[in-house]
Automatic annotation (TrEMBL):
Pfam families: Cupin_5. SUPFAM superfamilies: RmlC-like cupins (SSF51182). Transmembrane segments: none annotated. Signal peptide: none annotated. Residues 5-138 form the DUF985 domain. This is DUF985 domain-containing protein.
Amino acid sequence: MTANEIIRNLNLLPHPEGGYYKETYRSAETHRKPGGDERNISTAIYFLLENGDKSHFHRIKSDEMWFFHQGEPLEIVSIQNGGLVSVTLGNDLARGEVPQAMVPANTWFGSRVKSGKGYALVSCTVSPGFDFNDFQMADREELIMEFSGLVAIISEFTI
């Protein structure tokens, strides 16, 4: 299948961070974080990036698990402990790809099709569940001020 066929068949919509998504699960059970709002226990989405598209640097207030389904390997880049961390989702374990990865809560991260060609279809689960009130897109200038050694990657993954 092509990326456009997958987008159409799964009814994916444009995502504010880049790429396409569709929520596939939102638990009925909820949880109230200490001092926070009530959130569903867990949520899940399909997420697709194609060619040179990126999921731009953003962060959320919950851990996020990523699961590879098909297509080209997907690189997840994040800023952790002041440095850059890169994980490649895919099925070629011999090349260091992994079928799942976790991004810790409150971590700046983005993703891209590693080769810049083709598409990657993944799923993401968030616990406590995703809510757009917990979503923050990165501001390029603020991120560069905080992580001055990562100017190139911050410039690439911010709008």
